[in-house]
Amino acid sequence: MKGQEWYQADDVAEEYDDKRFSQGGQLIDRREKEAVLEAIMPVEDRNILEIACGTGRFTVMLAEQGADVVGLDISAAMLQQGRKKAQNADLDGTLEFLRGDAGRLPFPDDHFDTVIAMRFFHLADDPEAFLKEMRRVSRDQIVFDTFNRFSARSVYNWALPMGSRLYSRSEIAILLAKTELTLVDVEDDFIVPYGLYRSIPNGLASPIRKLDTAIGKLPVTDHLASVSYWNTHVR
Questions:
Q1: Which of 31, 96, 105, 208 is the most buried (most CB within 10 A)?
Q2: Cα gap 4→38, rounded to integer Å
Q3: pLDDT at 84 exceeding the cut of 80
Q4: CA–CA separation, 141 vs 110, rounded Å?
């Protein structure tokens, strides 16, 4: 995985949410959570694994809504932040955080209803292997997101501390075929890349987001979105 040393640093974990999901980044957080919930609903009583769960943004949200969730991450520091977040949450389901490698998931075959991976595949050095492992432990559904090759994301990708793997739609289609997953739905969003939202106040980000959403609905911009949310089912 790209950037493992950077990602596992204590100071990165402590500042991760503030740097990415404060100010205009709140809009990103809200949209990503909406995408996950729309794909998984109904959430209650569902058995879910999140790989690369980070600080538990999605794991805590899903457990609050009644799911039984396991969050797995390589970073002990990130998991510690997730546990702190869970202590202040009102959980209707169960939640467990485990340290582990997404390439060798410590679970038997078909163990979970749903496996999700958000903000993960842009760091994957072997996406097919990771997706196969997710497929192995899921008996029903896999939800993930990707950053897209033909988008504004590519413009500033070089400036990121560890870069990003960008995908075309044809690459994802090939990955799904190789891992025997059926595409149920895909949602494309954010003509304006994430980096801009994170760097400006929420009051300024909101009107930009409205314009971004309106432009994104035009047919001519279908393939310019910087991120895609993929909902797939196991064959």
A1: 105
A2: 30
A3: yes
A4: 10
List of domains in the chain? 4-226 (3.40.50.150)
Amino acid letter, 73:
D
Chain-centre distance for alpha carbon 198: 16
pTM score? 0.89
d(CA 91, CA 195): 32
Alpha-carbon distances of 132 from 71, 140, 184, rounded to whole Å: 18, 14, 18
85-98: per-residue pLDDT in tens?
999 999 999 999 99
Residue 85 and residue 95 in contact, taking contact as beta carbons nearer than 8 Å = no
Cβ atoms of 25 and 208 closer than 8 Å? no
Q: Are 53 and 71 in contact (CB under 8 A)?
A: yes
Buried/exposed 43-77: b ≥16 CB within 10 Å, e otherwise? beebbbbbbbbbbbbbbbbbbbbbbbbbbbbbbeb
**What are the strands, taking DSSP E only, across 16-173?**
47-51, 68-73, 95-99, 112-117, 138-148, 166-167
